[in-house]
Amino acid sequence: MKEALCVTVAAVLAAVSSLAQGQFTFANKNLNTTPPIDAKITCGGIGLAGSAYWAQAYIKLATDPDSSYAAVGAAVNFRTGAAAGYIVPVVVTTTYPNNTAVTVQMRVWDASSGPSYEAAVASGKCYGLSIGVELKVAEAPTPPADMIGLQSFDGFCCIPEPSSLALAALGATVLWSSRRRKACVGWA
Asked: What is the DSSP annotation of the chain?
């Protein structure tokens, strides 16, 4: 009987600890925090808008190397109109328990390049990322932590496809060689 009770208590404790999931609010605008968050994401000074772009939270333990960032939560689109450059805030649940120090990044990409940031990087299409923001995840009933310290970035990088680079290099070579031939003709 004692053995069965111990097994039951151990199972309940394991179940409760496995449910311990810290949360944070994935948002790049919240003027009600102290200090306020206002981190508009732009490309050439124009806010990313609508379903043409995705944003997703990437998380790691604060003490882990940058190579350990992993996607968490679902990817979300940007708002439109006057709110372009901002996402609708969502609460993201992590596997980390209450009060765990983590670093969170906002990663964004062109939706036409695929369903993930990694797909955008692999395709050579537009993508970008924020600097990491350290926070401590919270468990209910404590409100989720905010991404205080998130900064705007206009580094949304559009990398030309390799074929475009090759074509540009070929054009530069043709121009250079035609200028060189003209210069040589004058010497004859």
From this structure: -HHHHHHHHHHHHHHHHHH---EEEE-SEETTSSS-EE--BEETTEE--GGGEEEEEEEEETTS-GGG-EEEEEEEEBP-GGGTT-BPPEEEE-SSPTT-EEEEEEEEEEGGG-SSHHHHHHHT--EEEPPPEEEE-B-TTSPPEE-TT---B---B-PPPHHHHHHHHHHHHHHHHHHHHHHHHTT-
Q: Taking the model in full, what pTM does it have?
A: 0.74
Instruction: Report pLDDT digits (tens) over 6-46.
Output: 444 444 444 444 456 999 999 999 999 999 999 999 988 89
Banded model confidence at residue 154, pLDDT cuts 50, 70, 90:
confident
**What would the two tokens of residue 39 be?**
């981190």
